[in-house]
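Throughout our pipeline, every protein is held as a single compact record rather than as scattered files. Nothing more is needed to write down the fold, since each code stands for a local backbone conformation. The record that follows is passed on verbatim for readers who wish to inspect the format.
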Amino acid sequence: MPHMQRITWSGIALHGGPLPGYPASHGCIRLPYDFAARLFDLTRLGMRGDRGTYRCDAIEIAPPRSV
């Protein structure tokens, strides 16, 4: 998965991939390859994302603990 950026620890991510025109994912968000590469280059680990005009409070995101 080129230029993968994890959103959740349960497997949701942004990544480059073919856009077949129908749902073909188990939850990931496929992006055109060139856009995924540009987004990957513009972001850094721990950066807060905003999906638009909806405002939400920031929460700490941590990997699941090993049992």
Remarks:
- Residues 33-42 form the longest helix (10 residues).
- The chain has one helix and three strands.
- The mean pLDDT is 81.
- The first strand starts at residue 5 and ends at 6.
